[in-house]
Design brief:
heterodimer, A: 114 residues, mainly beta, four-stranded antiparallel sheet, B: 114 residues, seven-stranded mixed sheet, 11 strands
Chain lengths: 114, 114
């Protein structure tokens, strides 16, 4: 399993774009990169997933360079409600009922201020 | 968006007692999971379940733990003889397919062992 490294915390202000970078130097060929968000006292919530280049959905964008050794989650124009912990996970898309390799690290605690 | 439902939201028990945590996964999902999060720590994988059997389990999931899908809708985690260190938030999750495409997490059950 590829180990991930993220900043422990980040501060931002409402309306700003936030970029959270995750390092995964040992990513394997079959690994995908997935980001989850977790609010206090709630379960993690899927944000976005990608393999290479750029992925965008209604919530965020995910930028993955060609070497795939890092990835950047981009949150456009954050609001106070985006204050949460953001987790970067790297692992295979397994087939056959075994998904236990969703390994959560400590994540990045994003604090959005007014 | 469909939700994973967990009950109870809080459970207080005495050390040595048995507890059963309940989850109702999303109706058309086939893959089910339990995770736990000790206060201030990482989200940890416990067990995955598919086709009425355990697919994968972590070192945490020892003989004190068991899972069951007693009917077509519920998914339970039983801790036979609780210990103080079992105090944590327990999250149930479900997924539609065998890939790590996207897991849906419940809001969790806060278990306090006294």
């Amino acid at each position: 399993l590829a180990k991930t490294t993220q900043p422990i915390s980040m501060d931002s202000y409402e309306g700003q774009e936030v970029n959270i970078t995750c390092s995964h130097n040992n990513i394997a060929t079959n690994d995908y990169i997935t980001w989850y968000q977790q609010f206090p006292s709630q379960g993690p919530r899927f944000i976005i997933q990608g393999y290479k280049t750029k992925v965008t959905n209604e919530v965020a964008s995910l930028f993955i360079p060609a070497d795939r050794k890092s990835s950047t989650l981009s949150l456009p124009r954050v609001s106070l409600s985006d204050t949460a912990v953001y987790y970067c996970l790297v692992g295979e898309l397994n087939y056959g009922g075994s998904q236990g390799n969703l390994i959560f690290g400590k994540g990045t605690k994003l604090s959005v201020k007014p | 968006e469909p939700e994973v439902t967990q009950t109870p939201s809080h459970q207080v028990t005495q050390m040595g007692q048995e507890v059963i945590l309940r989850c109702v996964p999303i109706s058309n999902h086939l893959y089910f999971y339990w995770y736990r999060q000790i206060l201030g720590q990482k989200v940890e994988f416990l067990v995955s379940f598919y086709n009425n059997e355990i697919s994968e389990k972590s070192e945490i999931f020892d003989d004190q733990f068991s899972v069951e899908r007693p009917d077509g809708s519920n998914f339970t985690l039983k801790i036979r003889s609780t210990k103080l260190e079992d105090s944590a938030m327990y999250f149930c999750a479900s997924g539609r397919s065998a890939t790590n495409e996207k897991l849906f997490f419940g809001s969790g059950t806060q278990l306090s062992v006294l």
